[in-house]
Amino acid sequence: MPKSPLLLVFAFLFLSCLYHISTATNVTATNLSQQFKEAPQFYNSPDCPSTTNDLEEGEDDGDDDSNNNNNNVVCSESAVHVAMTLDTQYLRGSMAAILSVLQHTSCPENVFFHFVASASSANASLLRATLSSSFPYLKFQVYRFDDSHVSGLISTSIRSALDCPLNYARSYLANLLPLCVRQVVYLDSDLILVDDIAKLSATPLGDSSVLAAPEYCNANFTSYFTPTFWSNPSLSLTFANRKACYFNTGVMVIDLDRWRAGDYTKQIEDWMELQKRMRIYELGSLPPFMLVFAGKIASVNHRWNQHGLGGDNFRGLCRDLHPGPVSLLHWSGKGKPWARLDANRPCPLDALWAPYDLLQTPFALDS
Q1: How far apart, in Å, do the first and last CA atoms of the chain sit?
Q2: pLDDT per position as a tens digit, 25-64
Q3: Total Cβ atoms within 10 A of residue 183
Q4: Per-residue confidence band for 361, with pLDDT thresholds at 50, 70 and 90
Q5: ∠ CA(85), CA(90), CA(96), 5° rounding?
Q6: 194 phi/psi in degrees, rounded to 5
Q7: Taking the model in full, what pTM does it have?
Q8: pLDDT tens-digit profile of 64-115?
Q9: Structural domain boundaries enclosing 223
């Protein structure tokens, strides 16, 4: 006897629902069209210092999302701390950056990652699951950044991507990370390392510098601020007695103890508030950093930030490397290597990023 057509419809819908639930469970990315491969596990070399648990029993490490298995590293003086933001748009770049850090350091088990994600994002738990799935042994912690801290201070800039509140989270690392974390390397998500990050982390900051970064004194520093700024003596004198040079905030070594002591988050916010009243710069989160720190930072060799590989902020045209050795390649600018590769319009240097891409393509074949 033939089955009822209505019964067949219900059966189809039920099986379809089960299929979609199963698919959603297995997806480890920020949308249903992307999955990431599992990265290989990396081990310490024999001469790496051991990490010990410096937390007293019952001591809070500063965040509800903490993985208890990581507590033996987060407060260890032997740990190398790396901070990055984490969001849907740049996750593919973040995954490549993480892989490059682990692959090129001698002590990958001593690297602790601090990821800052928007508290308003519905994808926070999925981002965390993606990291755990692709890097099962990664030592990391996710911090929720409240966009309201900064959203009212942001002025529109020359590129909309620069106006995302999470782009300003680097100014709040000292407030977000546990107090026992005294120094951190901040990295953007559009870069890869081809050298040991422990060398960058060990950059000496001298007696008073709060941060270290490569400086570019040949750049036209005045162009980062408006005529309104330079024509106002009370503002332009900000750089008096300072050899102020451009530096890129996508790669920085930050002394969090000194940052907290100087309340530098408040200083940056003060400049952003002034910007809302009288436009004194055009380019997102960079100028407030330069207003506070330019001419006062510890210098880092240019090899640690071969930046600008994404071209300018308008067209994202291809660029060559700067002369000299390379430890870090940075696709700052509009053009991102994953987008150009997907569009089948890669720049020559995008081939250097491709080996770190963990995206699982639907038709990937084992070599």
Answers
A1: 52
A2: 333 334 435 799 999 999 999 999 998 644 443 344 444 4
A3: 20
A4: confident
A5: 90
A6: -125, 25
A7: 0.85
A8: 444 445 666 899 999 999 999 999 999 999 999 999 999 999 999 999 999 9
A9: 64-356
Segment 239-298, tens digit of pLDDT = 999 999 999 999 999 999 999 999 999 999 999 999 999 999 987 889 999 999 999 999
Count of domains forming the chain: 1
Q: For residue 244, tell me if it sits in a domain.
A: yes
- pLDDT score, position 18: 39
Tokens (6 digits) for 300:
């880092």
Q: What is the CATH number of the domain that holds 80?
A: 3.90.550.10
* Residue 302 to residue 212: CA distance in whole angstroms: 12
Instruction: Say if residue 175 is exposed, middle or buried (CB neighbours under 10 Å; 0-12, 13-18, 19+).
Output: middle
**What does each C-alpha distance from 296 to 23, 208, 234, 242, 307 come to in angstroms?**
52, 9, 19, 7, 21
